[in-house]
Design a protein that fits this description.
heterodimer; A: mainly alpha; ABC transporter involved in vitamin B12 uptake, BtuC; 14 helices; about 75% helix; globular; B: alpha/beta; Rossmann fold; 2 domains; four-stranded parallel sheet; 11 helices; about 15% strand; disordered N terminus; ABC_transp_permease (chain A); transport (chain A)
Chain lengths: ~325, ~350
């Protein structure tokens, strides 16, 4: 009897650890959030929690797309430049007129997808290192943005655009936060259910085997990069909605926030592993780390130390939960 | 007793250190004023026209420098003896700026205006220019006292910070809790603005500085930080934010939290997005960060080429513009990322 009880307990423990292992980043997020809530009651206020979700939108949306190409074994460093370009482009095409919003948004999304598609074609057919290619593409897009804008973030956001995305449903949930959560849920669902996403994992795990087994590796690569560009454009529009655009470099550096989130979320440079869910959790881990040190009121330099330490501890905790079986 | 001695001792040491730091900062300012007032011997640079002007931009990635460059080009158009303005853009790369300056020298420019990515990194290249009789003018950066820099035309960040702080405290009635939204940590702008704020606070003992934050001249980051501070502090009476670009993000966060009516915004600068906000809300005003610094730099350069004596440092003074007047400068049909300036319409960025 006691042996059976012991076996049941062992099984339960094993199952718990397995669950912890596959949801490591969510456990880290929960722990960090609990610590944050203990240190500041702001983290228990619904309005502030949804503020965090809204703050996360630009990086989070872009990170969804980059996760797809990294599962494939690639990377997309052009996403920051795409964010800057599409934010400026959308504002210019809006030109302060409500009637221009649909065209501006559609065109910006098309431009993002087109740039991503070019990345995909060049990587699929020339086998250039995605790292170098997308870095080069970032430089090209930055140049285009500067020439197109003349160095000032031209364009006037249409009245109602930002008001719509920042409107709080029930006085609590901003539309932009809902938009981001909706995209994240759709991304996770598609990742779980579509053949396209399963193929991404297969190609990322073993590209040669995937090609030999008859998968359309080139086509899937192009689509994945086009999706990354499309999500980059959505992130640009999200940034415009959140804070307006006040510079031609509005998205500069965001590619590193995106990469940090994707990698912390469990998607590796080697490909074939990870997923959108982990990325989303990691986006929140990084954001809460910043907000926590800020809200606790640490001196700026102390903020840097504590924020860096939180990221290191979060990464270590993540690896611990992943390893323990 | 031991604790009391420790407390008194540590307090005395702290006061001594702070006093020492404050006095060191004052001494540095006095020294800078003295160096800036020095007269430059320009005889080595005197030459007949026509002139070719070189502009070695450390970066072109923000609207302020775009307007500054337009001022340089506009001023050049007013001089018949200027035949060409050559512009290079180092895109925040100090190594490229060194190469750019060397290129301009080899192209035979007669004067180099520049704004640095890193002062130290380009010192050698600038020295090559001055050794060849090409004067170099730091345009819009801080004051630089170096043999490789002939003169600096600059906006005094300390004075600007002082003007902004005084106006804010007057608007607040001399009391209340504030936070400061500063540019990138460690930059001259951030250091000098904070030092000026603290210096003015000494005259206003009822003003409490809750926190000094760094928004990196980024509207989104300034907004995010303010959203956090609004959660932490139930009472914020004023915000010290000399950069209009960040002030908009700050004001938006207050507005979205339903707390805009409780706060007094300091003057920003003549960034158009901020001026639009001032026009709508009739508060804040502006302390200018004039883009005509570019024009003044070229004027000074022309005087050097003519062999006239000039001061090593020439300040372009900031001016206070009241909320009512600042609103007049707002161009509602222009983007936020735009600067109120005295440029003729044809010379504004297209």
């Amino acid at each position: 009897m006691s042996d059976r009880t012991g076996t049941v307990a062992d099984n339960l423990q094993t199952r718990i650890w397995r669950w912890a292992s596959s949801n490591a980043i969510w456990i880290v997020l929960a722990l960090l959030f609990s610590v944050a809530a203990l240190l500041s009651d702001a983290f228990l206020r619904p309005v502030y929690i949804f503020n965090i979700v809204r703050q996360a939108a630009p990086v989070g949306v872009a990170a969804i797309g980059v996760t797809l190409v990294m599962i494939l074994g690639g990377v997309d460093l052009s996403v920051g430049a795409i964010i800057s370009l599409t934010a400026v482009l959308t504002a210019v095409l809006m030109d302060g007129q409500v009637a221009n919003i649909p065209l501006a948004v559609t065109f910006a999304l098309a431009v993002g997808a087109f740039i991503g598609g070019i990345n995909g074609v060049l990587i699929a057919y020339n086998r250039i290192s995605p790292f170098i290619l997308t870095l080069g593409m970032a430089v090209v897009i930055t140049g285009i943005t500067q020439i197109y804008s003349g160095g000032t973030a031209r364009g006037i956001v249409s009245p109602g655009f930002r008001e719509f995305f920042n409107f709080r449903i029930g006085g609590v949930v901003p539309v932009l936060a809902l938009f981001f959560l909706g995209l994240a849920l759709v991304g996770v669902r598609l990742q779980q259910t579509t053949k396209f996403c399963r193929n991404l994992y297969l190609i990322g795990s073993n590209p040669q085997a995937a090609e030999l087994s008859g998968l359309h590796v080139k086509r899937i690569t192009i689509i994945a990069y086009a999706l990354s560009g499309l999500m980059g454009a959505m992130a640009g529009i999200a940034l415009l909605a959140r804070s307006g655009v006040s510079s031609t470099f509005a998205g500069r550096g965001l590619e590193f926030d995106v990469l940090a989130a994707v990698i912390l979320g469990g998607t590796t440079f080697q490909g074939g592993r990870g997923g959108i869910g982990g990325t989303i959790a990691a986006v929140f881990v990084l954001l809460i780390a910043f907000n926590l040190v800020n809200i606790v009121g640490l001196d700026y330099n102390a903020q840097l130390i504590v924020k860096g330490a939180i990221i290191i501890i979060a990464s270590s905790a993540y690896i611990y939960f992943k390893k323990v079986r | 007793m031991r604790k009391l001695i420790e407390f008194v001792g540590s307090t005395v040491v702290a006061i001594g250190l702070l006093t020492g730091l404050a006095s060191a900062a004052d001494e540095a300012r006095v020294m800078q004023e003295k160096q800036a007032a020095e007269i430059v011997d320009t005889s080595a640079y005197k030459k007949e026209g026509p002139y070719k002007i070189g502009v070695a931009a450390g970066y072109m990635g923000n609207s302020w420098v775009v307007f500054t460059l337009q001022h340089i080009k506009y001023e050049a158009s007013l001089h018949d003896d200027i035949t060409e303005v050559l512009v290079t853009d180092a895109a925040f790369n100090p190594t490229k700026q060194v190469a750019d300056i060397e290129d301009l020298i080899s192209k035979g420019v007669d004067l180099i205006l520049y704004w640095p990515v890193d002062d130290k990194a380009i010192e050698g290249a600038l020295k090559k220019a001055t050794d060849k009789g090409i004067p170099t003018i730091n345009t819009g950066g801080g004051f630089v006292n170096s043999p490789s820099v002939t003169a600096s035309v600059f906006i005094d960040q300390w004075n600007l910070g002082e003007m902004v702080a005084r106006r804010l405290f007057q608007d607040m009635g001399g009391k209340g809790k504030i936070f400061a939204m500063l540019p990138i940590a460690g930059t001259t702008a951030a250091v000098d603005q904070l030092a000026a704020l603290k210096a003015v606070m000494e005259e206003y003992p009822d003003i409490e500085l809750l926190s000094a934050e760094y928004g990196d001249w980024n509207r989104a980051k300034a907004k995010q930080i303010t959203e956090n501070l609004l959660q932490k502090y139930p009472e914020i009476d004023g915000v010290f934010s000399p950069a209009g670009q960040m002030s908009i993000g700050v004001a938006e966060a207050f507005d979205e939290a339903g707390r805009l009516s409780e706060v007094i915004m300091s003057p920003g600068d003549e960034y158009n997005g901020w001026l639009k906000w001032v026009r709508t809300n009739n508060q804040g005003g502006a302390v200018t960060f004039p883009t005509r610094v570019g024009q003044e730099a070229l004027r000074l350069g022309m005087r050097i080429l003519r062999g006239e004596n000039v001061r090593r440092g020439q300040k372009v003074p900031s001016e206070y513009i009241s909320p009512g007047a600042a609103g007049v400068y707002a161009e509602t049909d222009r983007p936020d990322d735009w600067w109120a300036s005295e440029l003729p319409e044809a010379w504004k960025p297209q």
